[in-house]
Amino acid sequence: MTLLEIKNLHLQFNSDEGLALVLDGINLKVQKGETLGLVGESGCGKSVTGMSILQLVPTPPGEITQGEIIFDGENLLGKSTKEMREIRGRKIAMIFQDPMVSLNPVYTIGNQIAEAIDLHQPKGISSTWEGVVDSLASVQIADPASRAHNYPHQFSGGMCQRGMIAMMLSCRPSLLIADEPTTALDVTVQAQVLKVMADLQKELGMAVILITHNIGVVAETCDRVAVMYAGNIVETADVETLFENPQHPYTRGLLGSIPRADRDMNELTIIEGSVPNLTKPPQGCRFHPRCKEAMDICRQTKPTDLDLGDGHIVACHLYG
Amino acid sequence: MTTPETKPTSFWVRLQANRSWRKFIRHKPALFGLAIIILLILIAAFAPAIAPFGYETQDFSSIRLEPGANHLFGTDKFGRDVFSRVVYGSRIALMVASLVVVIELVIGVILGMLAGYFGGWVDSLISGFTDMVWAFPPLILALGFISAIGAGLVNVVVAIAITGWAPFARITRAKVLSMKEREFVEAGVAIGETDFNILIRYLLPTILAPNLVLATLTIPAAILMTSALSFLGFGAQPPSPDWGAILNEGREFLRDAWWISTFPGVAILITTLAFNFLGDGLRDVFDPKQTVK
Amino acid sequence: MLIEVKNLRKEFAVGGILFQAQRETVKAVDGVSFSIKAGTSLGLVGESGSGKTTVAKTMLRLHEPTAGEFHFDGQDVFALPRVEMRKLRRRIQIVHQNPNASLHPRMTVMAQIKRPLQIQGIGDRTTYENQVLDMLNRVGLNPEHARRFPHEFSGGQKQRIAVARALITAPEFVALDEPTSALDVSVQAQVLQLLRRLRSELELTYLFVSHDLGVIRYMCDEVAVMYLGQLVEHAEKPKLFANPLHPYTQSLLSVVPIPDPTMRHRDRKMLTGEIPSPKNPPSGCRFHTRCPHVMAHCKTDEPKMKEVESGHRVACHLYE
């Protein structure tokens, strides 16, 4: 069942250098309970996509010019500020790369979790300290009863991120948007946080949008993957299909360019050039200047989404 | 992120693309201040053409005349044209203030860079000395200095500069402390740059902006200080048309000849305001973090 | 051996600006020894706080060493007087992690790559520019780029400029400090390929510092693993990846995300907790607080580095 559907979302930023078309017609579906990976390199628009769902994109300079974001049958773009505040946290939660920024340094972790619970509870019912300690225990914090009295600076990076997760999941949202949740963490700690997230997701039956540049993390945690490039989703597929049978030249290049720790590689696939400036995006397919298989049509016409079956969608003229 | 197209690199094109520059030309008060300063510089440069009379020209037939068609700002007790004197006075004000600031800048930047870069006992010594100079009330220190070396404009410049360089040293030291840890400075060490070259080629360019801001904001203080010292009789000596000196001469006639003191006072006010506007603007451009909005 | 590092130690004093008594010593590097054969590359891998970058920067005397020796081609580098050290910099170079920070923001590309030639007096005034243009060509940039300033370039191009500056004096040894961790994957692949090509063309010896095991595996002949300022294992690459001996290396290799969903259910040796603070490292074996095989004497006795087979050294009480 579809929980969230983004239809033809266009978003632009008014920057000093001119108008940047940051999202150029995004289509995306998230099913109940699944983990969708949103991958791409910096500037591809993956974080902006996540933030636009919760309407956290600063306006101005950002502006959604077209499209719909349908969550649980309702278009979020028509909601008032007050209605959005109700949805944020209670139905859709979001965690960011740097948990220290999201946590208030002058309150204890326990206080902040209690407040998060209260904020989204029906009036009159307030959280109990046991509830707070339980939620810390659920994210594998050792000695949660005394740790709840700690301030954020007494927590390490990985513990802060787990504390954020505890806080965000305390109201049992049906969708969690995780924006690079483990990028700032070391691998051994990253593994711990990813495991906590996966366990809680199973337990709560919530859907997760995992925004990341780390293809390895996607392969390990996601059910489906959407690959973004320069404001477009170029390919969507379930995780096995995408890694075994990538179709878009960018996806193929990206997967081939990762040096792997589990086997020796003689050569990496090289995608020449760099990401375009979105104030002056290339005509036609935005990837064509870097594409080894570019044809004439790629320079003129933007490719449309093509369903190759089983939800494998690719936007490329090679298959048109 | 982006592949730049081949850009023409002419100065004007680069300037227009420069973020600081674009921010500056949108800053209205700063532009206003700059316009007045340019006007003042033009007035100072063309003073002989603008002033209808010489600043020393006495005319005993027209003593303490009210402002009118012949004498825009009136005349003083010797029948000298106040307008001409104020116009010539702009030369003194600007010259003295710029000289003071340049000397402060040089002393402050050199000491601040040495303290910040070498640290240790060099830093302790310089910083201790800086704090000591800063702890004195500047007017008292300048007065003491002048009473030792004698009155006069040149001595005023020396006195103000020697008491006022401490902020430049502080700001420079702080900036050098943060910049010397930067990777590009480390990269300079790694290719074998000498300490001298690290200071001049790598660190000096990075401390210019905050010092420029400070210099612009120090000029009005220097003008006020010169005027204050002249007003007290320690600075420019008669018949010099220093604004502070004119102000002082008009003091005894405030009741019946208000114009003698008022117009140089207004000139001081406008000049200091203009530099403050410009300085605030430059600070907003170069140091967005300090901007309170 | 071109490079021989013996018992390198580096301590930093932190805090206590006002009162000397508050000063704490951080043992960032605490007794590290290794050697590198000419023409090979050693990967130095570890998590944040392991001291891997400090090793590289101390070798180059960008930090003054607290103790230990570094012999380069028979010369005792740490004993060289300042003038001699500056001359030696022609032969040992470094590429920093973040090209946005490591290039002089107000020097043109030509000026900054030319600088080492001027300082070291290589060739004469008339040949400087041609040498720079040759080098630009080698790192994949063209002559028009020479007139521009760093901010006009993308991250990958900036790193190429930094590489050109490091290699212009034809050094024999180059320390690469996470040279691609600030770059996107597709750009990382370009820079890694460039670094591999330059190594064989110019017969360079690399010390490659990275937290990314995939990158290390792609770039290096030997790998040394660091934990809290000390080496725990050092082996030829095939031996280390096929048969990691130290429990920390074993865990690191098992939890690094693999971009292949079929590997998802492999056995992972998860570690508990996080890397302790180097201000106050654990007694005995520094890894004992997180080690799954911890024994009584691990808490009191520091294990010595020991060669367990040819080309494979490990510091762990399990192998005594």
Could you characterize what this model shows?
The complex is a heterotrimer of chains A (320), B (293) and C (320). Chain A has a domain at 32-56 and 79-273: P-loop containing nucleotide triphosphate hydrolases (Rossmann fold, 3-Layer(aba) Sandwich), CATH 3.40.50.300. In chain A, 32% of the residues lie in helices and 24% in strands. Chain A has helices at 46-53, 81-90, 99-102, 109-119, 129-138, 144-147, 157-169, 187-204, 215-221, 239-244, 249-256, 296-300; strands at residues 2-15, 18-31, 35-39, 62-71, 74-75, 92-95, 175-179, 207-212, 224-229, 232-238, 306-307, 313-314. In chain A, strands 6-7-8-3-9-10-12-11 form an eight-stranded mixed sheet, sandwiched between helices. A four-stranded antiparallel sheet of chain A has the order 2-1-4-5, covered by helices on one side. The longest helix of chain A is centred in the middle third of the chain and has 18 residues, at 187-204. Chain A is globular and about 65 Å long. With 293 residues, chain B is an all-alpha fold. The radius of gyration of chain B is 23 Å and the shape is elongated. The two termini of chain B are 31 Å apart. With 320 residues, chain C is α/β, with parallel strands linked by helices. Chain C has ten helices and twelve strands. In chain C, strand 11 and strand 12 form a beta hairpin. Helix content of chain C is 31%, strand content 23%. Chain B binds chain C through residues 1-4, 6-7, 9, 182-184, 186-194, 201-202, 205, and chain C through 57, 60, 62, 86-87, 89-90, 93-94, 96-98, 101-106, 115-116, 119-120, 144, 147-148, 152-155, 157, 162, 165-166, 169.
